[in-house]
Amino acid sequence: MRFLTGLPGLDEKLGGGIASRTLTLVYGEEKSGKTSLVLMICALATRQLPAAYIDCSGRLHSARISQIMRALGGDEEKLYILSIESFQDQEKVILSLHDLMPPARLLVFDDFTALHRLELSGDIRLDMPVYRRLAFQVAALKEAALRNDLAIVIVGHVHDMPDRGESRAVAQRILGYWSDTILRLGLDLKTRVGRVIIEKPERVEAAAYRITGSGLTQAQLP
Asked: Which ranges of the chain have pLDDT less than 50?
């Protein structure tokens, strides 16, 4: 089973959308359209099947959900929304996927590393157990996707690396290792045109987009 993203160019490069039995990482700068994209995936899925959206940072606005759901013809009654308040609760939710069949075949964990970051002290020796727990959680999600035929999407932010002149996903080694597909979103603030780059399994520029009230719409590169 595959779940459409709403961007035809991206869906084509993904072979028809986000596949079940896989873990997908979506990441990018703040306000690059990450949440809009995953809400579009949820909205399109709920035309036929339930979807679950897990908010790991408490930053989602209900008005934005309704806006995108209405624009894409999604069924809000088929969208399960859960807000998580602690890193421990996040782990409990993930482990529950192994004990109980979730109510949806598509699960989105938005801002997945937000609660992980709150646990960090800045001392690598003290923080190693936190990183191990994060790795355990991501591995458990991958196992749940395979075991229960789920499509699981995790959304992450980036952090700058001034010494290298680049930025990368928070906990990129951990998240990237377990992810089957990695999508990076980048928005040009001057043109307001964004790009979706598939970084895994094969690096390719998949689609250009603009952010609108209905989510993301495919655009032409300037």
From this structure: 161-162
State if pTM tops 0.85.
Answer: yes
Q: Are 171 and 111 in contact (CB under 8 A)?
A: no
Q: Report the candidate in 84, 78, 69, 131 with the shortest Cα–Cα distance to residue 103.
A: 78
Q: Residue 206: give the domain boundaries.
A: 2-218
pLDDT, position 34? 95
- Count Cβ atoms within 10 A of the Cβ of residue 124 and give its class: 0-12 exposed, 13-18 middle, 19 or more buried: exposed
Both tokens of 180, joined, read: 């089957």
Is 146:98 a contact under the CB 8 Å cutoff? no
Does residue 50 have a cis bond before it (omega within 30 degrees)?
A: no
Report the CATH number at residue 80.
3.40.50.300
Q: Residue holding tokens 């952090």?
A: 159
Query: What is the number of domains present in the chain?
Result: 1
Tokens 């719409």 -> residue:
217
- DSSP-assigned letter for residue 76: G
